[in-house]
Fold this sequence. Notes:
HotDog_dom_sf; about 150 residues; thiolester hydrolase activity; mainly beta; about 15% helix
Amino acid sequence: MPAGYTTLPWHRGFGRQVGPLFEKRDENGVLRRAFRVEEHHTNGMMNAHGGMLMTFADMAWGAAVEKDEDTWWVTVRLMCDFLSGAPLGSFVEGHGIVVGRQDDVFTVEGRIYTGDKLLMRGTGIFKVIERREGQEKPFTRPEKGA
């Protein structure tokens, strides 16, 4: 795993099924997410399955609207252009940049890549929502310094 990444401690739900996932916040404050292509992520050609790449794009690009771990959001629209494949064992990274905002709805431009190879690009529209009483966080980040 490249320097600076930590495991996203997803303890329940869908994120746990498609993981493990990793994240880091870079020097510019951009939250990047990543995963290593394992056998359960692959298609018949032993590349990351397109469904996995779209799932990952949703998680990586949506993270662009997170202010902190208590920010909750839902996907309104996700548009993806598939450009290349990621073979088994590849370390896939992705991030999004907010390019527009209307109240609590954000437009994000995103990229998914492995090394210098661009795998996917696209846009997402994400709505920030309030957590409802009784909802449990899907993951809990470790305390700083722990």
